[in-house]
Write a structure and sequence with these properties.
By secondary structure, the protein is α/β, with parallel strands linked by helices. It folds into two domains: 6-44 and 291-397, Aspartate Aminotransferase, domain 1 (Alpha-Beta Complex), CATH 3.90.1150; 62-287, Aspartate Aminotransferase, domain 2. The chain is 42% helix and 15% strand. It contains 14 helices and 15 strands. It has helices at residues 6-10, 15-28, 47-58, 71-85, 100-111, 128-134, 154-160, 183-194, 221-224, 256-269, 275-287, 289-311, 347-358, 382-397, and strands at 34-35, 94-97, 117-121, 138-142, 165-171, 200-204, 232-237, 250-253, 317-319, 326-330, 338-339, 342-343, 360-361, 363-364, 373-377. The strands form four sheets. A seven-stranded mixed β-sheet has the order 2-8-7-6-5-3-4, sandwiched between helices. A hairpin with a 6-residue loop joins β9 (317-319) and β10. α5 packs across α10 (256-269). The model has no long low-confidence stretch (mean pLDDT 96).
């Protein structure tokens, strides 16, 4: 009989992709399902990268590239980072791979030995703990709730670090909360990390261009602590700001030793990123500034509209997002109540009923490590969000 490895036996399905599949199954049965689950923009890939992808096919730019990406693209990434963040990198300190998710996966594979711990604060992106486990690491989960504004504090970070700590992984603006670390908060975290030189820092910057305060880019830990550069990995990609989710293209900047190891790992796993996607991203980096600005304006409008709708539901509390495109909704006032014959004990119960009976797909906070909340993506039209919130209002109104 075929035997699967322990790794396979312990592997968890991505909760968001599972929910997407469940929503599609209901839609295939004829139900009008509204999905607010996956962090995927509803706007198309911008014209310049789309045209460049077509050009790549037409001109035969369809062969293998170096495992770490083409030199031209890596140079363009260094120019982008200098322009947006003021950081100086060389092409040898850049690697390109099949999506920012795979970049994080590769970084963890190259950093973790069996038993090493990686600090992750709640609420977290659903894939972080499993990716750490697949690298034979141990997720060291630090609970950060409403009292901490859902962000890790210097005190909690200090307490979490021990001799087994290998890395600290965080995302700002955050998936799932949409909240950002301020420059002062990052400076305080840097003071802690400075005392522990064995701890690598993985900064997930995938949403750093989607910020709502008028800034070009979200505050960054290296802006306030440039001395941490030699142990910090910056992760980004085309998926969010450029709406290139299906192109599967991401990159990392960091110390050459680690970046080289990640590129070697990529060469033995994915081989190389898509030449077509690289050519498309190159065009996007060079020409899409005004497109991104337009997207941010659109998201701000959606945020304002969606907040108004959600805040009108008596039992909900919503954290106002500062970036990305998520609402982090406190549904604790709904728990313990009953819908028909079902007791709504957990966020999963709430989201299951919302999907099965009202055909709105959302992500339970429990999947992000924080019970009593749910994540909604507002990368949908204002009308779609209004219809979805209307169904939520109907559901909550029937709870007793």
């Amino acid at each position: 009989m075929l035997q699967l490895s322990k790794r396979a036996q312990n592997l968890k399905t991505s909760p968001t992709l599972f929910l997407v599949a469940k929503a599609r199954e209901l839609a295939s049965q004829g139900h009008d399902v509204i999905s607010l689950t996956v962090g995927e923009p509803d706007w198309p890939t911008f014209k310049a990268p789309s045209d460049a992808g077509i050009e790549a096919i037409q001109k035969g730019i369809t062969k293998y590239t170096p495992a770490n990406g083409t030199l031209e693209l890596r140079k363009a990434i260094t120019e982008k980072m200098k322009h947006e963040l003021g950081f100086e990198y060389t092409p040898k300190e850049i690697t390109v791979a099949s999506g920012a998710k795979y970049i994080i996966f590769a970084a963890l594979q190259m950093l973790c030995s069996p038993g090493d711990e990686v600090i992750v604060a709640t609420p977290y992106w659903v894939s972080y703990p499993t990716m750490i486990e697949l690298a034979d690491g141990v997720p060291h989960i630090v609970e950060c709730g409403e009292l901490e504004n859902f962000k890790i504090t210097p005190e909690k970070l200090e307490k979490a670090i021990n001799l087994k700590t290998r890395a600290f992984l965080f995302c700002s603006p955050s998936n799932p909360t949409g909240l950002s670390y301020t420059a002062d908060e990052l400076k305080a975290l840097a003071e802690v990390l400075r005392k522990h030189p064995q701890v690598a820092i993985i900064s997930d910057d995938i949403y750093n261009r989607l910020v709502f305060d008028g800034s070009k880019v979200a505050p960054h830990i290296l802006s306030v602590a440039p001395d941490l550069r030699e142990r910090t990995v910056l992760v980004n990609g085309g998926s969010k700001a450029y709406s290139m989710t299906g192109w599967r293209i991401g990159w990392a900047a960091g110390p050459e030793k680690l970046i080289t190891a990640m590129a070697d790992y990529q060469s033995q796993s994915t081989g190389s990123p898509s030449s077509i996607s690289q050519h498309a991203l190159l065009a996007g980096l060079r020409t899409s500034e005004s497109d991104i600005n337009g997207v941010v304006e659109k998201l701000i409008s959606r945020k304002v509209s969606g907040l108004k709708e959600l805040q009108a539901i008596e039992h909900f509390k919503v954290a106002e997002p500062q970036g990305a495109f998520y609402f982090w909704v406190d549904i604790r006032n709904c728990l313990g109540k009953t819908y028909q014959d079902r007791v709504v004990r957990t966020s999963k119960d709430f989201c299951d009923i919302l999907l099965e009976k009202f055909f709105v797909a959302t992500v339970p906070g429990a999947e992000c490590g924080t019970e009593g909340f749910m994540r909604l993506s507002f990368a949908v039209s204002e009308d779609t969000m209004k219809r979805a919130v209307g169904r939520m209002r109907d559901f909550v109104g029937q709870l007793v």
